[in-house]
């Protein structure tokens, strides 16, 4: 490939690996692509494809060390993304609801009778509500 930017650089940043003449690079010069890889690991989609195939070659689960990733140009990945999005959104709503219920339960516990049912006035059971009138008095 023809070197469009001249030979004097420390780092060359290009959109594709075809824009870099790796054979003409001097020691100490770096580029944002790897020579002779094409899109296999030098592009996100190629990296994703290769990481997914690890399960077939070495039994390694990509999710154990790499964040979820989808190629939305692939119909199966698009469907996986939609399902993951719906699941994650649903889980978020359920978690928020359970936290609200837990917070409400915690505030109810502050008004409840202590363990054993003993009240500070020595009586058993729940304390009368504030403003309640004692009919036996």
Question: Can you tell me about this structure?
Answer:
It is built from 2 helices and 2 strands. The protein has 137 residues and is mainly α. The protein has a domain at 70-108. The protein has a two-stranded parallel ribbon. It is elongated and about 70 Å long. Residues 124-128 and 130-134 have low confidence and may be disordered.
Question: What does this entry show, briefly?
Answer:
By secondary structure, the protein is mainly α. Helix content is 38%, strand content 3%. It has a domain at 70-108.
State the main characteristics.
137 residues; mainly alpha; two-stranded parallel ribbon; elongated
Beta fraction of the residues? Answer: under 5%
Average the pLDDT over all residues and give the rounded result. 76
| Spatial strand arrangement across the major sheet | 1-2
End-to-end Cα distance = 100 Å
| Helical fraction | 25-40%
Q: Major β-sheet, in short? A: 2 strands, parallel
Inertia-based shape: elongated
Low-confidence stretches: 124-128, 130-134
Count of DSSP strands: 2
Query: Order of helices and strands, N to C?
Result: EEHH
The oligomeric state is single chain
Spatial extent as radius of gyration: 32 Å
Structural class: mainly alpha
Instruction: Count the DSSP helices.
Output: 2
List the helices and strands and how they pair.
Blueprint: E1 11-12, E2 30-31, H1 44-58, H2 75-111
Parallel strand pairs: 1-2
């Amino acid at each position: 490939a023809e070197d469009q930017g001249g030979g004097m650089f420390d780092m060359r940043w290009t959109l594709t690996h075809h824009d870099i003449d790796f054979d003409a690079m001097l020691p100490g010069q770096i580029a944002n692509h790897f020579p002779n890889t094409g899109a296999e690991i030098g592009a996100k989609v190629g990296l994703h494809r290769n990481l997914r195939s690890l399960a077939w070659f070495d039994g390694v689960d990509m999710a154990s060390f790499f964040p979820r990733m989808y190629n939305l140009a692939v119909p199966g990945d698009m469907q996986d993304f939609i399902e993951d999005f719906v699941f994650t959104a649903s889980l978020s709503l359920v978690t928020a609801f359970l936290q609200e219920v837990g917070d409400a339960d915690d505030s109810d516990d502050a008004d409840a009778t202590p363990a054993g049912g003993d009240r500070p006035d020595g009586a058993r059971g729940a304390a009368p509500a504030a403003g309640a009138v004692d009919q036996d008095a």
